[in-house]
Structures are given as structure tokens and as C-alpha cells.
Amino acid sequence: MAVSELKEKLFNYADLKTELAGTRLAPLLDTVPDNFAARINHGDFPGWKQVIESLPALKPASVDLLDEVRIGEKSQLQEAEREELKALLMGLQPWRKGPISLYGLQIDTEWRSDWKWDRIKEQISSLESRKVLDVGCGNGYHCWRMAGAGARIVVGVDSHLLFNLQYWAIRHFLPEPPVHVLPLALEDIPADLGAFDTVFSMGVLYHRRSPIDHLYALRDCLRPGGELVLETLVIEGEAGMTLMPQKRYARMPNVWFLPSCATLQSWLQKSGFKKIRLADVNQTTTEEQRSTEWMNFESLGQALDADNPALTIEGYPAPKRAVFIAEK
Ligand SMILES: C[S@@+](CC[C@H](N)C(=O)[O-])C[C@H]1O[C@@H](n2cnc3c(N)ncnc32)[C@H](O)[C@@H]1O
Description:
By secondary structure, this protein is α/β, with parallel strands linked by helices. It has helices spanning 14-20, 27-30, 36-39, 45-54, 79-89, 113-121, 141-148, 161-171, 211-221, 261-270, 300-303; strands at residues 63-64, 70-71, 97-98, 100-102, 105-107, 111-112, 131-135, 153-157, 179-182, 196-202, 222-233, 242-243, 258-259, 274-283, 320-327.
């Protein structure tokens, strides 16, 4: 396989800078350090970079981002070439968000992130021609689906380096993508940007020590009348009830607050949102989140009480997720 000529494009936002120049989104890029790649001081980075630089130069015969994330066709690669591609991408493990199909190679990720999207896509305002922000986007799986749903531009932010590299691996095969994942935290985004039509925060709120500050920051990214799509872990209970796990929750160390739906509704109200609507509540199953060849660490199955899967191994209610939709 030929080595790609796109290798210098890793963490290169020149095209995006041109596209955003003079728009309300332009200040976004001021927060990405120049020469970002050169400043990375992570021991695994050289190996990850090598993976991206070794990807074959291929142009997809077809792409589907509407019904799935599928780039290229099986017939475009020989079986041995597909195995080579698989060996390369295995170097970017763990793959958590997907599934993603690349030239017939199925990246079977820990999460069936498509199921989450299926629960959300009919509930939200049409993304047609909208400017969209996906906060805590991971490798950008849902960003691709948002682009498939017609968004004019999708910006994802996630400060986790490996997930950014996974995005660049996918993006490698789409030279002019409508999706841009930036290595930023929400807190890095200039205050009062007020520029996005839709802002997603999915699977992030419970990781924040200050959930109300998170809601304020999400609101500040939206234009007046813009839509927030918030997905997070919740518990059963009345208004005012919130679980704060003392140590781990479902094996995760960095979980702070799990509100009841009624509590979360009041948090959204207090944070200045209107037309707040509970769009979905869903118990996470071990079919939706599980270990796979592409993520071979422990997963949800090992985080639940073997005798009573309604509880986590710490004795808390098992993961249940709610989707709220609200307007600025
Ligand atoms: C559980 S994953 C959710 C990924 C994806 N949004 C989804 O719903 O499948 C949470 C992600 O949020 C990111 N994250 C946590 N705090 C963040 C912050 N303040 N700003 C941006 N990303 C954040 C983490 O790095 C992680 O990739």
C-alpha cells in the first residue's frame, strides 16, 4: 500500500481557519495552539502518529454517513490489504465509539454508539444547514452522523489525545470532511461564543465536578434560540435527588453527579434554558456496551453485580441515561 501524502495534515487546521475566517466561529481556532502536534509530550504519540502516516492513500468509491459510518467499499481492497489496515488501526486501541466501516473492515467498538444516535435523531430539530458543536465527542463518531444528517459544519471537541488520533485516522480517507475534531475541552472555548445552532453534550455531564458550570458553558456556545441536546447518566427519584458516588461508579473513577430527571430539569431551568423536554430514558445494556476485539478491556458486564445486574458492583443503580432537549 502506498504511504499517504496527507501525513502533514495531522492536527493541521489551516483549511478550517480559512473556512471560519470572518465568521462568529473564528475565535474557536485561536484556542488551538500553533504547531499542536509538535508540542505533544505523550509517550505513545510517536507510535500513534506512525499509524496515521502509514494509512493507505485511498479515495472512497462511496460514503454513507446518514444510516451508518461507512467509508469506501469492500471491493476497493484485497483481503490482505484489509488485514494490513486492520493491523494498523489496532495500533489505536481502545476503540470505544462506533461501529465504523472502512473499505469493508468493521471496527466493532465497545459501544453501539449508533443505538444512542437512533434514540436521539428523531427527537432533535433538523440539523440541515446547522452549525453544530459536539462537546466531549470522543473519536467523533456522532459528529460524522451529524454531518450525515445535513449539518453545514460540525465541530467536535475532546481533549483526549488518542480519540483525536482515531478521528484523524477516519478523516484521512475523507479529504474535505464536514467534521472537525479539535483537541480542546469545553472550558477552552472562548466565553460567550454564542454561535452554534445546536450543541450536543453526550456522556460528559457526570464527568464534570461542576455540572452547573458545564450547563452554563454549553449555553454560552449557543446562539439565542439554539438547541441543546444533553445526554447523561440519571437515577430514579424526585426533584432534588442526586447521587454522588463516593468512590467509583460502575468502575469509573471520575463520576461526580447523577441527578434524577426532575433534578436535571431544574438544573437546566436554573441555567437559563427554556422549552426543556425529556426526550428519552434508557437503561444501558451489555449488548450496547461490551468488550470487543477492538476494545478488549473490561466493560459494562464486569461493572454490574453478577447476582443483581440492576446494581453496579459498588451497589449503586445500574447505568440509566436520559436525553434532554432544551432551547437557549
Ligand atoms: C463517555 S465519553 C462520551 C463520548 C460521546 N459523546 C458519546 O456520547 O458516546 C466522554 C468524553 O467526554 C470527554 N470530556 C470530558 N470532559 C470534557 C470537557 N470538559 N470538554 C470536552 N470533552 C470532555 C472525555 O475525554 C470523553 O472522551
